[in-house]
Amino acid sequence: MFSGSIPALATPFRDGALDERAFRRLIDWQIENGSAALVPCGTTGEASTLSNAEHHRVIEICIEQAAGRVPVIAGCGSNDTKNAALHMAFAKKAGAAAGLCVAPYYNRPSQAGLIAHFSWLAENCDLPMVLYNVPSRTVTDIEDETVVELVTRYPKRIVAIKDASGDLSRVADHRMGIGRDFCQLSGNDELWLPHAAAGGAGAISVTANVAPALCAEFHAAIAANELERARELNERLFPLHYAMFSDASPAPVKYALSRVHDWFSPDVRLPLCNASEASRAAVDEALEHAGLV
Questions:
Q1: pLDDT tens-digit readout, 186-230
Q2: Which of 162, 242, 254, 255 is catalytic?
Q3: Starting from the edge strand earliest in sequence, which strands make up the sheet with 202-205, in order?
Q4: Is 132 a catalytic site residue?
């Protein structure tokens, strides 16, 4: 259903509030530079610090500004199943193509609990769902067998997965258990190339926030089986992938965006802090290596 370079959009703040003007400019820039879809209100979008009203406004702005040029996969995850359903209902009404639903965090549900959570959403929400597995943040891992069972039960509702487990063997496991047509998206920029080689369709990317054209070109090289070109671009982007996590994300990518665009503030919300001096140095060096500054 989805493929290519898909930025997990950072949410710009100014003086503590959502900077709508900067967000609209970011969306236009992303589309103009080849991003294949957009993800507002994910981890990089600091969804966990947004009120429900802000969360819905960010989704609304993204869909409105994209204006049908690319699909929007709205972040709809929550550790409260009913609140996730609230986000899904709003995203559906606003015109999202799908909802990105992370494994419930903090609660630490069992695999049976994960199946119950995602099954309830699939049965009570009519928006296609992209599973989001990021155990480094949620603690809970959506195991391969659980993914296969959910997609087998709800093939028209659960249409893709963003996998940020770091385990590349899962691409083959999912293909063998579900089929080759199931959309698998990398959630780790540094593993985008091997993930694609194993059968992935693209990436929901942090780096694409600041390097959308390069990331789009990188995916195009992969899709065209131009391995040498893909390797060259991968090496150009690789330091940036790691620099994006040189401090608590999304502080480094917001700093990077502020280097590339003077209209984008580097500010994050508490409990996060702006990128440290060491992180800023790592980002500066990576931006230079990629030829972005």
A1: 999 999 999 999 999 999 999 999 999 999 999 999 999 999 999
A2: 162
A3: 4-7, 202-205, 183-186, 158-163, 129-133, 98-102, 73-75
A4: yes
Quote the radius of gyration of the chain (alpha carbons, Å).
Answer: 18
Residue 82 annotated in active site: no
Query: Are the C-beta atoms of 40 and 71 separated by less than 8 Å?
Result: no
* Candidates 82, 105, 132, 254; catalytic one: 132
CB count, 10 Å around CB of 166?
Answer: 14
Mean pLDDT of the chain: 97
From residue 16, give the alpha-carbon distance in Å to each of 31, 91, 262, 265: 26, 24, 18, 11
Report d(CA 5, CA 218) in Å as an integer: 8
Question: How many Å apart are CA 48 and CA 246, to the nearest integer?
Answer: 20
Structure confidence at residue 9 (pLDDT): 98
At residue 24, the pLDDT reads: 98
Long-range contacts of 281-285 (CB under 8 A, 24+ apart): 282/239, 282/242, 282/243, 282/246, 282/252, 283/240, 283/243, 283/244, 283/246, 283/252, 283/255, 283/256, 283/259, 284/259, 285/239, 285/243
What's the confidence (pLDDT) of residue 1?
A: 78
> Tokens at residue 262, please?
């003077």
Distance CA 158, CA 147 (A): 9
Alpha-carbon distance 175 to 194, whole Å? Answer: 15
Q: Report the run of H or E that residue 279 belongs to, with start and end.
A: helix 277-290
Count of CA atoms in the C-beta half-sphere (13 A) of 189: 31
Amino acid in the structure at residue 25: R
Give residue-wise pLDDT tens across range 220-260. 999 999 999 999 999 999 999 999 999 999 999 999 999 99
CB atoms within 10 A of CB 181: 9
